[in-house]
Design a protein that fits this description.
This protein is α+β, with helices and mostly antiparallel strands and about 290 residues long. The protein is built from 5 helices and 20 strands. The chain has 3 domains: about 70 residues, Immunoglobulin-like (Sandwich), CATH 2.60.40; about 90 residues, Immunoglobulins (Immunoglobulin-like, Sandwich); about 90 residues, no CATH class.
């Protein structure tokens, strides 16, 4: 009877230790997470009561040491995984960089103006040796207005905010931890071919070009392409909702405006863009118009 009770107690203790071990949080460190090619990372595990550890460096190499140093042989992004007792694991993302990156970044800069005007197509260029990059255009007054616009060394961006606005242009590189930034101030003055001058009332630029199509001011396709540029789209079938009731594609809508303008007096009163909250793109154009 005593032997049976002792055996039961040992089993319960063993089960308790096993459950306790399963609940123990994995504690480990890997540093640095950004390392130059040829320099080692240091890995260390301090998980309580760990019976076995396995470090997988994401390239086929493994180690069963609790701590040590490891040097990657190629640059790239690696998923380093620590597995404890074949049941619990934790991942670390390590970026191995080209040792010439810091020198290259020092010699790389953004070539762009410090000021621009509304509706203007502003060019941005990378001056330096880079393979691939990503441009971000962020309005300081709108934390959600963050557009990924181009992955080339050369980008063109059209600013359409109706007020004086400061934008931060950020240039990121896949193989660099840091990024380059450029600040540009956009002034609320539409280019002279829009028919507005400093001190004039500034209309919505989309409204302005739609009205120009109606009034037959300028070439039709010039105005139409300006509208698509402001919408940052190449889609002719973008949906236009007219007066909240009728839906039509952009191409057909603009052609109808041209015909209606010839027949009677039509006025565009308001134009709004309906954006996709996930991709920050325009999914529909909302137009209010009246016949005079």
């Amino acid at each position: 009877m005593i032997l049976y009770s002792s055996l039961t107690l040992l089993i319960l203790i063993a089960l308790g230790v096993k459950v306790l071990n399963q609940d123990v949080q994995v504690r480990a460190t890997v540093h640095p997470l950004y390392v130059e090619l040829g320099s080692p990372i240091h890995f260390s595990d301090s998980t309580w009561n760990a019976q076995s550890v396995t470090w997988d460096f994401g390239n086929g190499d493994v180690s069963t040491q609790r701590s040590g140093d490891y040097t990657f042989k190629k640059k790239g992004l690696y998923q380093v995984r620590l597995t404890i007792d074949n049941s619990r694991s934790i991942n670390y993302e390590v970026v191995v960089k080209d040792p010439n990156i810091l020198v290259r970044k020092k010699n790389t800069k953004i070539l762009a103006p410090d000021t621009a005007i509304i509706c203007e197509r502003v060019p941005f260029t990378v001056d330096g040796k880079v393979d691939k990059c990503m441009w971000y255009f962020k309005n300081y007054n709108d934390k959600y207005n963050d557009h990924v616009y181009s992955d080339e060394k050369y980008a063109v961006y059209t600013f359409d905010n109706l007020r004086t606005t400061t934008y931060q242009v950020t240039l990121k590189f896949p193989d660099m931890e840091d990024s380059l930034t450029h600040t540009i101030t956009v002034l609320p003055i539409i280019m002279y071919d829009c028919g507005c001058y400093p001190g004039d009332h500034i209309p919505n630029p989309l409204q302005n070009y739609l009205q120009k199509i109606i009034d037959r001011k300028g070439e039709y396709y010039t105005n139409y392409n300006k509208i698509k540029s402001l919408l940052r789209t190449n889609k002719d079938d973008l949906t236009v909702l007219v007066n909240g009731t009728k839906e039509i594609d952009l191409n057909t809508y603009c052609k109808n405006l041209r015909l209606m303008g010839k027949q009677n007096s039509l006025e565009i009163q308001e134009v709004e863009k309906e954006n996709d909250s996930i991709h920050s793109g325009v999914v529909r154009l909302l137009v209010t118009q009246i016949s005079k």
